[in-house]
Automatic annotation (TrEMBL):
Its main location: plastid. GO terms for molecular function: magnesium ion binding; monooxygenase activity; ribulose-bisphosphate carboxylase activity. Binds 1 Mg(2+) ion per subunit. Heterohexadecamer of 8 large chains and 8 small chains; disulfide-linked. The disulfide link is formed within the large subunit homodimers. Residues 1-42 form the Ribulose bisphosphate carboxylase large subunit ferrodoxin-like N-terminal domain. Its EC number is 4.1.1.39. It is found in: Plastid, Chloroplast. It catalyses: 2 (2R)-3-phosphoglycerate + 2 H(+) = D-ribulose 1,5-bisphosphate + CO2 + H2O; D-ribulose 1,5-bisphosphate + O2 = 2-phosphoglycolate + (2R)-3-phosphoglycerate + 2 H(+). Its cofactor is Mg(2+). GO terms for cellular component: chloroplast. This is Ribulose bisphosphate carboxylase large chain. InterPro entries: RuBisCO (IPR033966), RuBisCo_large_chain_AS (IPR020878), RuBisCO_lsu_C (IPR000685), RuBisCO_lsu_C_sf (IPR036376), RuBisCO_lsu_fd_N (IPR017443), RuBisCO_lsu_N_sf (IPR036422).
Amino acid sequence: YPLDLFEEGSVTNMFTSIVGNVFGFKALSALRLEDLRIPPAYSKTFQGPPHGIQVERDKLNKYGRPLLGCTIKPKLGLSAKNYGRAVYECLRGGLDFTKDDENVNSQPFMRWRDRFLFCAEAIYKAQAETGEIKGHYLNATAGTCEEMIKRAVFARELGVPIVMHDYLTGGFTANTSLSYYCRDNGLLLHIHRAMHAVIDRQKNHGMHFRVLAKALRMSGGDHIHSGTVVGKLEGEREMTLGFVDLLRDDYI
């Protein structure tokens, strides 16, 4: 495709142009986008990750080892206070991070502001007792971009190091907006890939996850779920490790 056909810095426009209509052609029974080769002249119009690996390690003052974290379970049903207590116990027990699950947003049993406050209290209490920098991935995903940014602003005011976003269900435009805010305000950004299997799991239709991973690098995120070689979710070892390498390459 000629570069003049694409708006600079817009993942939304790129996908609208490449896959927006062709998958609906009646002449096609199935179609799969396996990969994209993006020229540097276009990739350089994107901001990319808000910070990246080295900045995150510098902020946490943790080097030479993987960062260890967990997701709070049960994912839904806890009150904000009990949720914060679970965060504190995990961080006090030795974890570097805890995180919200992808569908923890602002439900009636635990509104987002209450969750943010109790999690921040848990972080500071664990930090004071361990002498280490701790964090919790506060899910800022919301129904509108304005509400999402409002949650990110509140997280920054609390002084927490990181927020989180569901970039596929939230949308590329919302994700890029949040990524710009995080870079400008010193927040790390964790990305959850909820809904990816709807797009990438069928072998004869949809898009390969490597395409979604490249899109995330352009839209912006400091780290993303790339799959696991063990556990309950699908994913082959070699392919999962390939995603990790792809996300760390110097080029897209």
